[in-house]
Amino acid sequence: MYELHDRVLMKKPHACGTNDWEIIRVGMDIKIKCTGCGHIVMMSRHDFDHKMKKILVKADKKESE
Question: Among the four 5, 6, 22, 63, which has the fewest Cβ within 10 Å?
Answer without folding.
Answer: 63
